[in-house]
Amino acid sequence: MNIDIKLHKNDLPEDLDLGNIIAVDGEFMGLNVKRDPLCLIQISTGNSDAHIIQLDREKYDAPNLNKVLSDASIIKIFHYGRADMAHIKHYLKTETNNILDTKIASKLARSYSDSHSLKTLIKEFMNVDVSKQFQSSDFGGELSPAQLKYCANDVIYLHKIHEELNKILVREKRIDLYKSCLAFLKTRVDLDLALFKDDIWSH
Predict the structure, then answer these.
(1) For position 137, what pLDDT does the model report?
(2) How many C-beta atoms lie closer than 10 Å to residue 11's C-beta?
(3) Exposed, middle or buried, 141 (CB in 10 Å: 0-12/13-18/19+)?
(4) I need a surface site. Which of 7, 33, 54, 88 has the fewest CB within 10 A?
(5) Which residues pair with 76 in a beta bridge?
(6) Element (H, E) at 4
(7) What span, in angstroms and rounded, lies between the C-alpha atoms of 42 and 106?
(8) H-helix or E-strand containing 9?
(9) Nearest to 118 by CA among 57, 128, 108, 137
(10) What is the CATH topology of the domain spanning 4-193?
(11) Residues 9/10/12/14 CA torsion (nearest 10 deg)
């Protein structure tokens, strides 16, 4: 697949029309939100394209990106949005609204599997074996072509994957449970930011 990858410095262009359903992912220096900075946000319209925003980590001034993320009329598809949304809220100081999540959908729909990684979902639903070689690489400096391709792979398949998972959720009558989980996701992010990492429902 030929991917149209565009790298944007600091923010999205003001006049960019991404449509009303986008896939979103972030890259950080690690998984500790308050220690490990948000470096990149990548967005795809689902048309074999990837817009990769390399953020200014001194200012995090990205009004055009923030407008898209907070716009409730635009659907955002994540894979494990919990981590991305926490970094976005902490560093960009904005809420991410109108969220879908392929990892949550997979765990509810694909009870026949113990693997819910993006790599697994891409292989099952797209029959593409993507490399995760650069998953643990330094996204804080200059980006190599291989890193850019890795970032693009994280978003270009999410529209189709969510569509297929949604079919299973509807068929298995789990779609309402999925919607309830999505409604709680922002609260789960707030619990993470408040350092409540454990399952608060446990005994």
Answers:
(1) 82
(2) 19
(3) exposed
(4) 7
(5) 22, 99
(6) strand 4-9
(7) 21
(8) strand 4-9
(9) 128
(10) Nucleotidyltransferase; domain 5 (3.30.420)
(11) -110
Please write the tens of the pLDDT for every residue from 110-144. Answer: 999 999 999 999 999 999 998 776 666 889 999 99
- Residue 187 is classified by DSSP as H
For the chain, the domains span: 4-193
- Beta-strand ranges (E) seen in 10-156 are 21-28, 38-44, 49-54, 75-78, 99-101
What strands, in cross-sheet order, belong to the sheet with 21-28?
4-9, 49-54, 38-44, 21-28, 75-78, 99-101
Tokens matching residue 165: 């998972």
Contact by Cβ (8 Å): 111, 51: no
Contact assessment for residue 69 and residue 48, using Cβ atoms and an 8 Å cutoff? no
- Provide the 3-class DSSP secondary structure of residue 100: strand
